[in-house]
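Hi there, hope your week has been kind to you so far. Please have a think about how the structure follows from the sequence. I've dropped the whole record in just underneath, so have a look:

_____
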Amino acid sequence: MHALRDCTELSEAGPKAQRLARALRAGIAVPDGVVLLPNEPLPSPEELASALLGLGVTALDPSARLVVRSSALTEDLAGHSAAGLFVSVVGAAPSEVLAEIETVRRSGDSDLVRMALGGSAKVAVLIQRQVPAARLGVLYRSQHGDLRCEEREAAAPEWADVTVSRHAHDEVGPLTLGAAQLALLVSTELGAGEPAAVAIYAEYAVSDSGHVTFLQVRPAPRRSDYQGFALSDDHELTYVLDQEHNPDPMSAAQQGLVAVVADLVPWLRQRPVCGYLFWATTTGHRPPPTMTQTREVFTTTILPTCEAMLSPPERRIVGKDGALREELLVDPSLCELTLSDALTVYRSIYSQYVGLLGPAIRRARTQLDQLLLSNLGEPLGQHGALLSGIGGAQTERVTHLWQLGREGCQKDALRLYLARFGAFSSCWDVVFPCDDEQPQAIIDYARHLAGQPASPTIQHALALAQYHDALQKLLDRLPRMARGALKSLLPLVRDAMLVAEDDDLLFFRAQRLVRWALLAQGAKLYKAGRLSDPALIFDLPWRTLSSAMSPLHHPLTTDLSALALSEQRLRQHAKQLVPPERIAAGHPEWALPDGRTLSGTGIAVGSSVVSGRALVVPRLDNPAESLAQVLAQLQEDTILVLPTLLPSWAPAVWGALAVVTDSGGALSHGAILARERGIPAVLGTRLATQIITTGQTLLLDGARGLVVLSPATKATR
């Protein structure tokens, strides 16, 4: 066994014991103790009695009480506390210490630890004299320097109501002074430099006389990998969610591609936030072409210019000779196009179309929308048939596929299709394969289309008929003067929309260049042993790609797969989030649905808004039994609704989407579980378990501390 103060540099003592040892040596008020390392044998009764005597505890004193705590090697790390995973025993009598040491050690091999940490953990055991306390508290010192303290009576259960106080960093008092000392200690440990920039979390005890003893300190859990829906670099513009082009979180590669063109067009700004695409428009720049000029500018200028830029690099992505391969499959190793060259073409095409014609097309739709609103009070969205039957590249593509299926998907016909439409993809994200990478999927799709009762040509004719019918009905409802305006405006709008459809193929062709250049680089990294799969290249941040092939900064032995897989997990996490409709003044704005709303103390980690189904635990009479029942019902979209969040409920929190409680505060020990897990929570609603029913759909906003209830359907208690 080792004296606590001797464990400052003893790594096997675990971060918790090491940090307390440094605090003890620095003169900070922490209880002294002894440490049993993970591989040390249990002490004999005589050895234990001698160690306890050094702490002022007589082994035969029936009133003496001790704390037997875990100090695992994977516990209390920077950014990951492992809160609630290991056992700590409070109030052990001297005669019980040996048995409790084994209890604490065994917790390192529990199912929960293996699930959360990916395997068993080595656990050192810290033994301290229990500090007499009138009140117990936690403090949280943020990176902004303010101090929040939450206290409860020592005799009260952990989920009891608490008192919360806030202190400025320059206030004088035992808590603020202690927080400053602890921040300095943690800052030195992390090599972080300025203590004021270090966030800490600490537990403390307050005696009847007001003396403060610090029981534990660690860097505050910081989930820097979960970014919130906020903008720090642009508070002047309002950004709107782009639900049309990127409805799901974008891959790392697509976010990099957006960043390449984010500020390329003077009137448009784009920002990926939590993987979702947001855009904002500005004014005061050169006016765009008029609607009558849109088709002419596209046909005579933009289309030939883009074709001239696309054709040479497209020949390079299939080899030097540009010949179609007999097997029809893409081989990224044949791509000779560099990412830099591909991005040059993409930027040029983007600026040609978006910069010149984008405003004209948007203005066309806006004018038609305003015409309908001013005369009928109805937006264009209620008259979608007015834009039916426009045609364009997508209609041509589907028609070609139908013919391909009808003709038996002959190889020559398939080559002709791929030569024209091979760049099309199912999504605007560069991570998704193009048609020419999956010929069998195209064959299956063509055969499916060929089996439909009506050909694409007939469907197009029906859409045109719907358009003419809708137009006539609309003309009958409009005032006389508005009819002429609609007749002159609508053809221009439809033509502008046709340009937008035809332009899609240009964009897909430009995106294909980027995709193939990335695949070629992924193949090189795979061959060098730095990626376990070439496709992981799409999950690498572009700041990594910029130097990934440089032996100077990244030795060839560096495996980038872990980073790519981490980005994949972030993307999966982002899919669970509810993105805001807009970001104004740098902050997200959600349009909360109608329904009953509960409020409480919010815990926001990353994007704070999720939607899921409630699982209500109305009482905790038997927490262990309740936990077992909950674990059997947990699903990916489960929002736990509890009277309070007990530390022992860590297994449930690790499997839940979010947490709602009747009581508790943002700094309670149980809330740490939600914060560290990276899920939002709303605590202290007081009424949640009474009015929410199992199965009910909830929208939870951790940033604002709101829970919105939808009408319950087939809900049960």
